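We were asked to recover a plausible sequence for a given structure. The inputs and outputs are reproduced exactly as logged, with field labels preserved.

PROBLEM: sequence recovery
POSITIONS: 252
GIVEN STRUCTURE:
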């Protein structure tokens, strides 16, 4: 079975009720089957939903700062993440273990994580392991309850790192698509502004999650006939271990 993980950072006097989590799941996602086989042992709750094994583990230690420091420094969704997360003392580990497709695991992980933080006022925010993203409590809940029913909540599943390179071009990459079953995206020579490149990467990522792996090697993409960008399957220039989709703005 494959595993997907999210960590919930907690403030003081944090408590969780598995009954409250179950009620929250039933209220916000009525299409989910009821949980089965609910058990608790040594601070770990476990149950099953639609063949997926779910574990909620109480960790009496903070999320390692070595995991949080980089994501806090680059977070768009949580500008003061470092200040708020440095002082947390404990966390919950939310784990989904299943044979289901990666996107389906991500959906269920989002729903269960939202139920945990929605019923625990002491929850500060979420570390989304697949993308090394930190998301504040209110924003995670908003994306989970309002965006997820309509489509992929891409901004809490995938990180978009963009900036200017020494040549004055925009460059950047995604982190989080590979755990969802897709190639990561990257480019080193975008003629767009960093903000526009971030938007483009987000739109392509959303398109892939909705349509599947339909962009092939050497395909061209663009918003109109005048805008043509070549997609090339290649080795990563940013350290991703697997083949990526490189957007080449100078290919044509």
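RECOVERED SEQUENCE:
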């Amino acid at each position: 079975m494959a595993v997907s993980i999210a960590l919930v950072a907690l403030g003081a006097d944090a408590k969780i009720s598995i009954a409250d989590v179950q009620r929250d799941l039933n209220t916000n996602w009525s299409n989910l089957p009821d949980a089965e086989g609910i058990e608790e042992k040594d601070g770990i709750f476990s149950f099953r939903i639609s063949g997926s094994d779910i574990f909620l583990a109480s960790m009496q230690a903070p999320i390692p700062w070595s995991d949080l420091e980089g994501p806090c420094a680059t977070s768009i969704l949580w500008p003061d993440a470092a200040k708020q997360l440095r002082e947390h003392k404990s966390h919950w580990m939310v784990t989904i273990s299943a044979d289901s497709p990666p996107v389906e695991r991500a959906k269920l992980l989002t729903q269960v994580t939202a139920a945990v933080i929605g019923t625990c006022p002491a929850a500060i925010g979420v570390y989304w392991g697949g993308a090394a993203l930190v998301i504040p409590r209110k924003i995670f809940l908003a994306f989970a309850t309002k965006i997820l029913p309509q489509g992929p909540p891409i901004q809490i599943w995938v990180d978009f790192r963009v900036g200017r390179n020494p040549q004055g071009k925009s460059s950047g990459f995604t982190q989080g698509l590979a755990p969802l079953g897709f190639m990561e995206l990257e480019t080193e020579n975008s003629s767009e502004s960093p903000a526009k490149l971030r938007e483009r990467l987000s739109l392509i990522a959303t398109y892939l999650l909705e349509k599947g792996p339909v962009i092939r090697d050497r395909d061209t993409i663009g918003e109109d006939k005048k805008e043509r960008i070549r997609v090339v399957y290649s080795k990563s220039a940013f350290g991703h271990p697997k083949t990526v989709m490189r957007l080449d703005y100078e290919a044509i």
